[in-house]
Amino acid sequence: MTAKAKTAILMAFLASVAFAQESPSPAPSPITEESPESSTSPTDSVTPPPVLEQTPSASPARSVRISFVPPPLEGRISIGIYDAKGKLVRVLHQEADLNEFKIGADALVTQWDGKNDDEEDLPAGKYHARGYLVGPLKVEDLSQTAAAPPESNSSATVRVKLTPNPLANDKRAIVELAAGFDGDGSYLKTNDDLPLFTVNESPNLIRVSIVKNGDKSVDIWQTDGVGFHQFRISNVDQMMAFDCGEFELK
Q: What pTM, to 2 d.p., does this model score?
């Protein structure tokens, strides 16, 4: 082999060795594209968790237990709550049946929530409860008339001697009765506004008055502005007063 041929073979071999020793250029690593959900812009603000609204705690329930021994008379019961000055602040029961009360060990039991008739909380202090059991009163419709009642004073009262309550040892119980009305009709009430007995269910009344008719009956006159209507209530002495005692509202 000639020297020229040998030189050509050597040059080719060196070239192949040099090519094999070169480190290949590293392939670029793939770029992973972030999903829109996972990318957060530096200017984006993180939404703070919702702030729980502070609600005022409800005031503790106020409940007063009231018990009483019902008078020995069949009828319906009305009970009022009176403040320290003797003012009626709540009609607790109006013409209630006996079965509307809980039966205690030796008395009937009811509850008062410490509110007045407008559902407003009354201040703490001493209060008194008392009521009446109204027996079988008789209502007589004396028809409608255009004449005015003999006494037109709507604030008039009449004094009625009640049946004594043997449990209260009260032999001369007297009550002053008046006439009242609301959107449901007319009724007998005490002079301090405790309703006792429904007289007539007539809406749209504008005035009522009461007149005594003997020892055991009264006449109720009522009007809706058109004419007067007269009712006679007999056996008004068939009522007994009772007391529920004094208690303190916290």
A: 0.74
